[in-house]
Design a protein that fits this description.
The protein is mostly beta strands and about 425 residues long. It has no helices and 38 strands. Strands 5, 6, 36, 37 and 38 form a five-stranded antiparallel sheet that branches. It is globular.
């Protein structure tokens, strides 16, 4: 059976607490479930609840300040760093990330200057560089990243990306693309040794193209066009040059910056700001062509801007600007269809969203009156060495409770040791 470390209790209130534990060994078989139990006697076996993967729970200290009017957020592949592009203060905020708790801490030197009105930001697949597109200066800033501290150093600036918005990098690390607000996608080859970019030219896009993403197989690029289409580009995997592969209507209105692909390469999702819904497409992994699902759209909260698919492929999240919330969806990994499982509160006017590659953290960047990042733990069945947590309620004020974590595999159920806490 699985082996678990000592349990934890946090965010204790008069009627509940956030309980959790850490799986230290899977016991030689795949973990199929995990959760927590609580009661008034030691080693409780009642009030046990199995974790529903993909739910979001804000940290006990839920936010950290960003720069002014932040628009873009990125996380490093190693999970140790988070960065925001701040359009009002013309800089990038830099944070270290605690990989066990998901909490962020600003670096000792917390910001570095970027172009004028930076909008998009992306970290290279090898974690060695960061790229920032800035709308008003028409630049792409290139930074080297200290992989130990996460600190950035400017190594170059390109001046070809007029009115640049979103920016993305191919998973193979050889190309960078910036979406322009003037109807173009700007193409760059990337030197995988020093991270410097070489401008390859631009390709026509729709008016006000903001969101842009590359498929996980590096063969196709997708961009959101403001008036309701997803533009499809075929990518030459040797040169990185794009050619038009057509377009498809979202059936929604004003899909600004929110576009995402699934890690398995079979789904694409567009967040439609004005119509407050998500368009769902299946992707032909051979050609990159998109087909709307039989039920082509699903409602979100008001005005979704950012959208992501979790690394395990079972969850999709949209950051909703006018409802100050994050919509949470479960994803059918066979069909790509989404099912709403509710929403959680965010800061004011969220603009962008990102998740850690280990699937345990989600970060939402809010502009408006907030200018901050809201930090969430994401529920998972359990990753060895990474804590899992669960919000539990139904308790009585001023009472002592026993609790423990558990995990299940084909061999049996393993429990953590017993611990206690007192409600407020």
């Amino acid at each position: 059976a699985p082996v678990l470390a000592s349990p934890t209790a946090s965010s204790i209130t008069s009627s509940g607490a956030t309980l959790g534990s850490t799986i230290s060994s899977d016991g030689g078989a795949t973990i199929t479930g995990s959760g927590t139990c609580w009661g008034t006697s030691a080693n409780p076996t009642t009030n046990c609840s199995t974790i529903t993967p993909g739910l979001l729970l804000a940290l006990s200290t839920p936010t950290i300040a960003s720069g002014s009017a932040p628009m873009g957020i990125a996380i490093s592949p190693d999970g140790n760093s988070v960065y925001t592009a701040n359009s009002g203060s013309n800089n990038v905020s830099m944070y270290s990330r605690n990989i066990n708790t998901g909490s962020l801490t600003a670096l000792a030197t917390p910001t570095i200057t970027a172009g004028t009105s930076p909008r998009g930001i992306v970290v290279s697949p090898n974690g060695a560089q960061v790229y920032v597109s800035s709308r008003n200066s028409g630049t792409v800033s290139m930074f080297s990243r200290n992989t130990s501290t996460g600190a950035l150093t400017l190594i170059g600036t390109d001046y070809n990306a007029s009115y640049g918005q979103g920016i993305t990098i191919s998973p193979d690390g050889t190309s960078v693309y910036a979406a322009g607000d003037t109807g173009y996608v700007y193409q760059y080859s990337r030197n995988t040794t020093d991270g410097l970019l070489t401008y390859l030219g631009r390709i026509a896009a729709g008016a006000s193209t903001w969101g842009i993403v590359v498929s996980s197989d590096s063969k196709t690029v997708y961009a959101n066009e403001y008036y309701g289409t997803v533009l499809i580009y075929n990518r030459n995997t040797s040169t990185g040059v794009l050619t038009s592969g057509g377009s498809i209507s979202t059936g929604g209105s004003q899909p600004w910056s929110g576009i995402a692909t699934s890690g398995d390469g079979t789904s694409v999702y567009s967040a439609n700001w004005s119509s407050s819904n998500i368009s769902m497409f299946s992707r032909n992994t051979g050609t990159g062509a998109l087909t709307a699902l039989a039920t082509p759209r699903i409602s979100s909260d008001s005005s979704p801007r950012g959208i992501i698919v979790s690394s395990d492929g079972i969850s999709v999240y949209s950051a909703n600007q006018n409802s100050d919330s994050v919509s949470v969806y479960s994803r059918n990994t066979s069909t790509g269809a989404l099912t709403s499982v509710g929403s959680v509160a965010s800061g004011n006017a969220p603009q962008a969203i990102v998740a850690s590659s280990d699937g345990t953290s989600v970060y939402v960047l809010s502009s408006g009156s907030s200018n901050n990042i809201t930090m969430y733990n994401r529920s998972t069945i359990g990753t060895i060495g990474i804590p899992f947590i669960q919000a539990r309620t139904g308790m009585t004020s001023g009472s002592t409770y026993h609790y423990r974590g558990y995990a299940v595999n084909a061999v049996g159920t393993g429990y953590s040791s017993d611990a206690t806490f007192i409600t407020l």
